[in-house]
């Protein structure tokens, strides 16, 4: 008997983590696609000098794209268990809120902006952080009551 959850047996929090992970994975891949990433020739390994923009809006670098890929793989793998999925969403959300604060506090033209981040990235990180934490907490609350209760 397989212990790997199927789509039908995944809890809502596991499904949310799987979807979020898949989106991060897709975003990481798209960051390396010329055309989807404008000014692709200006893509740098890291740092604020990378002028490549995912979807023409979000500043990216090779490091930034690799982080998205790793975050996506983590989400997909952690979605296999209820606790892993919840932790991915909540802890990942906290990481994105910290990244949002970091982006607000650093000088964007300094070496501290090594990811790199622009204004659009900062606000996306706020939305991701709040959204992931909300998904992790709200969807795991519903599951915590048990499958036989309403």
TrEMBL record:
Q: Which UniProt keywords apply?
A: Membrane, Transmembrane, Transmembrane helix
> Would you say which domain of life the source belongs to?
Bacteria
Q: Per the record's keyword annotation, is Transmembrane helix included, yes or no?
A: yes
Q: For this UniProt entry, which segments traverse the membrane?
A: 12-33, 53-78, 85-103, 123-140
Which protein is depicted?
Answer: Membrane protein
Q: Which Pfam families match?
A: DUF4383
Keyword Membrane annotated: yes
């Amino acid at each position: 008997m397989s212990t790997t959850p199927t789509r039908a047996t995944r809890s809502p929090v596991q499904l949310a983590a799987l979807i979020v992970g898949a989106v991060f994975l897709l975003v990481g891949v798209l960051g390396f696609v010329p055309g989807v990433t404008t000014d692709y020739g200006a893509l740098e390994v890291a740092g604020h000098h990378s002028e490549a923009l995912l979807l023409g809006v979000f500043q990216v670098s090779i490091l930034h794209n690799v982080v998205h890929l790793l975050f996506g793989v983590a989400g997909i793998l952690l979605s296999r268990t209820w606790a892993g999925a919840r932790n991915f969403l909540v802890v990942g959300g906290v990481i994105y809120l910290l990244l949002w604060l970091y982006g607000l506090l650093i000088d964007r033209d300094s070496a501290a902006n090594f990811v790199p981040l622009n204004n659009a990235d900062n606000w996306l990180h706020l939305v991701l952080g709040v959204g992931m934490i909300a998904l992790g907490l709200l969807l795991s609350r519903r599951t915590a009551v048990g499958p036989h209760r309403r």
